[in-house]
Amino acid sequence: MKSLLGRFVRLLRQIWRVASQVQRDKATGMLEFELKELENIFVMLLFGSFVGLPTPPTAMAFELMPYMEEEIKLMISRADLAQDPLGNLLGMLEID
Amino acid sequence: MTTLVLVVALAIYLIFYFSFGKGLQTKLLKSQEAPAAPSQRLSDGVDYIPTSKYVLFGHHFASIAGAGPIVGPAIAIAWGWLPGLLWIWFGNIFIGAIHDYLALTASVRYDGRSVQFVAQELIGKKAGKSFGWFVLFLCFLVVAAFGDIVAGQFAGDGAVASTFFLFCASAIVLGILMYRTKLPMIVSTLIGIVLLIASFVIGKHVGISASKDVWFLVIFIYIIIASSLPVNILLQPRDYLNSFLLYFGLITGAIGAILAAKGFDSVPVFTSFSAKVIGGKPSPFWPTVPLVIACGALSGFHALIASGTSSKQLRDEKDGLFVGYGAMLTEGFLATISVIAIAAFGVQALGEGKVLATPPLARFTASYGAMVASAMPFFTAKFMKLFAAIWVSSFALTTLDTTNRLGRYIVSELSLPAKDKRPGLYKFFNNKWVGSLVVAFFGIGLAWSGNYTILWPAFSGANQLIASIVMLTVAMWVKKELNEKYTNLVFIPAVFLWITVTAAIIWYQIAIVPAHFADPANIKNLITGTLVGLMNIIMIIINIAMVVTFFKNFGKDKAVKA
Q: What stretch of H or E contains B281?
């Protein structure tokens, strides 16, 4: 009986955790998407020379490079998925 | 009867999930032998993030379930309660859920790329390009159909309008609490929910009375502003609050349907094969049903959602059954509740002989209110009717401004070729306010000139065309990349859907559009007929060209590489 009750409490906890996670993601999903886009634009401004864009002074860009690991990862990911912006947008926006 | 239908629906869904769905997973897709999902192989913490299947289900379901599964069945009840219910169940199991599940899995096998990319790889560039055009027309038609729904709701009951604007104010306050203060999220959420309840209580007593035309103007201004504002001000917190409306509506609806235990005495089992459904004209159940019941049975948008983000977060391919197939069946369950409410409580809510004479959405909101109140008397029918109206309106308005955002982006993309030749023109269309204005102008202009019983089928047609292209794409994928032996399992529903949707759009073009030109003095009708007619013709041409390409490549041994 005790173990059954314990299992039930664990199940309830798990349900709560999932629901809470879903709601947290729902509260921040679009903001995260927008932040990613802004970071992507920022890294493009700094290291646009990789794709032929005019850039700020190289020395300044290289000085910032060690701090840009995450942003560069993001830029590479965006470059890979840029063929398919519609899917990305529709996955985020809720139209139904 | 309400209990019986709900139990039958649940039984059908569970049986098919564990038999048909599992069969697809183990025999056709062989997901148990599949390599690691892209979320594991390509995990980057940016787009590819392995996520628990339960959390992903929550995301996916909240993304695909909007006003669609409520509005469509409410319109389709004009054929009687059984035809619509059968289409919801069978369309859901044999087309909609397969469509969502296979689109999701195909995307997983293509490293999380969208179904548009998969279509381009397997069928050819034409299929990929078709998506862009269909989505653009969808943007106009979605804004039109949903704009008319919302304006009608606001004009019909001033309390809905005042409650909605108080709801928006609550969302803005919630946004400030969540993103600009250090309050724990649970505290902000509780304050948000209290404000949401207060919106209902206050809004019920403070109605805003205005004509439908005034509401069109208000909605026009609202969607331009809402779609141009930073997302953290209104869109994000409002969507967050919306999800609570969805859960509350779904749970109270299910409890109401089970506990009410009432017969289906409000609507006949079957009225006639050609009931007056679309634009008040006799509409044959086949092929026009997919123009009426869109999201409750199947929806092309779902494939784009599934393959846009969900496929990049699936921890294991096996989870696709729960997320793709399961979420679609859950949406079918929501559509079933919509039918149950009207069929059982229509007379109680609206009066004898008035159910089918009442506009579709008013049918649903009043019946739903009566159903929940009869099962749970601490909710009054009047309050639950207001809740249902807000539920539909808030989802419809969310759809309106998110669609406007998407349309803005597409307008900007389409103006790209003018960048070098006419930089001024490109700059003009690239302006976010201009982009918003273009979509809102066409969409709300259409809503003002027509009405949603005409516009909803046009939107559904474009949406279901996307679904048919996705189904053909996955049929091609099954034949060329998986196991030819199982091709017909997808190919037959795909062809059936394609024929049905194409026939329905052609029927719409022949039976509904010309009536708009009967009176040359009626400017509104001329606008609706011209715009919707043109969009339909373009969609039919693209659709046929795409299908010719499909059959050219279907016989070949190898997939075409675009």
A: strand B281-282
Residue A43 contacts B where some CB pair is shorter than 8 Å: no
Q: Which residue type occupies B54?
A: Y
Residue A16 touches partner B, C-beta closer than 8 Å: no
State pLDDT tens for residues B222-268: 888 887 778 788 888 888 888 888 888 888 988 888 888 888 888 88
| B463 vs B425: which has the higher pLDDT | B463
Which of B12-42 are b and which e, b meaning 16 or more Cβ less than 10 Å from the residue's Cβ?
Answer: bbeebbeebbeebbeebbebeebeebbbeeb
Evaluate if residue A57 carries a pLDDT over 80.
no
C-beta atoms surrounding A59 within 10 Å: 7
What are the structure tokens assigned to B203, written together?
A: 């809004």
Spatial CA neighbour of B67 closest among B459, B288, B444, B397? B397
Residue of chain A whose Cα is closest to the Cα of B331 = A96
Q: Is A13 exposed, middle or buried (0-12, 13-18, 19+ CB in 10 A)?
A: exposed
Nearest chain A residue to B294 by CA distance is A96
- Chain A residues in contact with B236 by the CB 8 A cut-off are 27-31
Name the nearest CA neighbour of B9 among B85, B98, B78, B96.
Answer: B85
Dihedral pair phi/psi, residue B46, rounded to 5°: -110, -70
pLDDT of residue A95: 61
Rounded to a whole number of angstroms, the distance from the CA of B237 to the nearest CA of chain A is 6
Nearest CA in chain A to B57: A22
Using an 8 Å CB-CB cutoff, list chain A residues near B239: 26, 30, 94
Residue pair B489/B474 in contact by the 8 Å Cβ criterion: no
Which chain B residues contact residue A26 at CB under 8 A?
58-59, 62, 239-240, 243
- H or E segment and range at residue B79: none
Which of B44, B52, B114 faces A77 most closely, judged by CB atoms? Answer: B44
Q: What is the DSSP string of A17-78?
A: HHHHHHHHHHHHHHHHHHHHHHHHHHHHHHHGGGGT---S-HHHHHHHGGG-HHHHHHHHHH
Residue A86's pLDDT is 67
Q: How far apart are the first and last CA of chain A?
A: 45
CA distances from B373 to B247, B256, B343 (A): 17, 8, 16
- List of chain B residues whose C-beta atoms are within 8 Å of the C-beta of residue A18: 52, 54-55, 58
Find the helix or strand (DSSP H, E) in which B44 lies: none
User: A26–B239: do the CB atoms touch at under 8 Å?
Assistant: yes
Distance of CA B176 to the CA centre of its chain: 30
Minimal Cα–Cα distance from B523 to chain A, Å?
Answer: 30
Interface mutation vs chain A, best among B41, B63, B414, most A CBs within 10 Å? B63
How far does A6 lie from chain B, in Å, by closest CA? 21
> B153 is written with which tokens?
């709701």
Q: Which of B374, B360, B363, B353 is nearest to B454 (CA)?
A: B360
Which pLDDT belongs to residue B562? 40
Of the candidates B42, B115, B58, which has an alpha carbon nearest to the alpha carbon of residue B473?
B115
Contacts of B258 (CB under 8 A, 6+ apart): B2, B3, B6, B375
What 3 state SS string does B114-168 have? Answer: CHHHHHHHHCCHHHHHHHHHHHHHHHHHHHHHHHHHHHHHHHHCHHHHHHHHHHH
CA distance B431 to B416: 12
